[in-house]
Amino acid sequence: MIEIHNLTKTFGSFKAVDGLTLRVEPGEIFGFLGPNGAGKTTTVKILSGIMRPTSGRVSVAGFDVEKEPLAAKRALAYIPDEPFVYPKLTGWEFLRFIGDLYAVPAAEQRRRIPELLETFELTAQAGELLEGYSHGMKQKLLIASVLLRRPKAVLFDEPTVGLDPKSIRRFKTLLADIAREGAAVFMCTHILDMAEKLCHSVGIIYRGRLVARGSVAEVKKLSAAAGERSLEDVFLELTD
Hints:
By secondary structure, this protein is of the alpha/beta class. The chain has helices at residues 40-47, 69-74, 91-101, 106-119, 135-149, 165-180, 192-198, 216-220, 231-239, and strands at residues 2-11, 14-24, 29-33, 55-60, 63-64, 76-79, 153-157, 184-188, 201-206, 209-214.
């Protein structure tokens, strides 16, 4: 579960996030939508513990991110839009490192790491240093590490950046699998069609404030226009 209560973040006189309150349940895929500069990435960085809020409270799996940071981070996986990996490790070593760091049993690592490398078509590159991986390969490796860990909450910030169409299609299936295992999924994306098809609920943030929240069908009803509207139509209407 992910809970955000009255979250505010200011930079000088600029209010990047303004009184944000929402909750993502276990097994729910939540799409966090908004134009550039709306406050999405700031929210994700606060949730992940990278940035401190000015006021308000955030918790992951019942752990306050500020007061219980280690417990919150154990329960959380964060995949940013610019994937960070240790360049002098191989793909195999990176997954072993993540498995050991999060206490995944050795027997499970030996079984699942080859499966994950095969799933993401990284088996041939598993022995190569990560400094030679492309952006998309690094992104796939990070997503594989999430599946290895089985965290209780997952944050994705533009997760399909750098992925080829085949990998994007596979990612959609894996996203549903992650949620089916009980994780709360919080995903920032500009791909509104993907959000409309995959997400159980969405929220639209604009100038730091949440201007819509609910199922895709509920958010579509907020449109002032008559007739059938896509999520993209409503998004543009609410953020114009």
